[in-house]
Amino acid sequence: MGKSYRYKCEECGYEEEFFVGGSYMARNYNRRVEEAEEELRSAALYGKFGETIQHMMKYERDKVYINCDTDLYQCMDCRSFSVQMAKELSLNNSDFTLSVEFRHECPSCRSNLLRKSRGSITFCPNCKKFTAQLVSMGKFD
Ligand SMILES: [Zn+2]
Ligand SMILES: [Zn+2]
């Protein structure tokens, strides 16, 4: 299942649509997601994210949830939108929940990206004003 976001800015005329998630439009999507998830899983198993996570991966693997689906992100600095893999790992057990989300780097300026799944208004990547509106959001197979 994929999702689409369409942003439009009334100030400068910027308009762009983004597709995230799997669909017939994204070739090999499932395989790429699986590979990314496997990579995270083995990094966790080798202790890359600390001992707690490593321990959970060894003994309570079924409680570890890994998400590498794509989502829409926006740069905090240059305001460019980009579609990135989420790369997050979370653990749920009776005592605590823990989640790790990887830092996402802007492909153009290397600043931090923020996930853009909520909020209907945001900064316009073109004129940089807080005037870009989410005009439509769709779901597709
Ligand atoms: Zn940027
Ligand atoms: Zn604009």
Overall description:
It is a single chain. With 141 residues, the protein is an alpha+beta fold. The chain has one domain (19-119). The chain is 18% helix and 38% strand. It has a four-stranded antiparallel sheet with strand order 2-1-10-9, with no helix packed on it. Strands 3-6-7 form a three-stranded antiparallel sheet, with helices on one face. The radius of gyration is 17 Å and the shape is elongated. It starts with a strand and ends with a strand. The model has no long low-confidence stretch (mean pLDDT 89). One zinc ion is lined by residues 9, 11-12, 14, 124, 126-127, 129, 131.
- Percent helix: 10-25%
Mean pLDDT: 89
Tell me the radius of gyration.
17 Å
Main sheet: strands, sense, barrel: 4 strands, antiparallel
| SSE series | EEHHEEEEEEEE
Query: How far apart, in Å, are the first and last alpha carbons?
Result: 5 Å
Alpha-beta content class: alpha+beta
Strand content: 35-45%
What is the helix tally?
2
Q: What does the overall shape look like?
A: elongated
Count of domains:
1
DSSP summary, beta strand count = 10
Trace the largest sheet across and list its strands: 2-1-10-9
